[in-house]
Amino acid sequence: MIQTSVQIRSKLADVGTTIFSVIGQLSENYKAINLSQGAPNFPCDSLLINEVTRAMNNNHNQYSDMTGLFSLKDKISEKITHLYGCDYDAGNEITITASASEALYATISALVHPGDEVIYFEPSFDSYAPIVRLQGATPVNIKLSLPDFSVNWEEVRASVTTKTRMIILNTPHNPSGQVMSREDLNQLAVICRDTNIVILSDEVYEHIVFDGLRHSGMATHSELSARSVIVSSFGKTFHVTGWRVGYCVAPAEIMKEILKVHQFMMFSADTPMQYAFAKYMDDPLKYLYLSDFYQAKRDLLVSELKNGPFRLLPSHGSFFVLADFSHLTDESDVQVVTRLIKEFGVATIPLSAFYSDGTDNGFIRLSFAKDDETIIAGARALNQFA
Question: What is the DSSP string of 314-377?
Answer without folding.
Answer: P--BSSEEEEE-TTT-SS-HHHHHHHHHHHH-EE-EEGGGGSTT----SEEEEE--S-HHHHHH
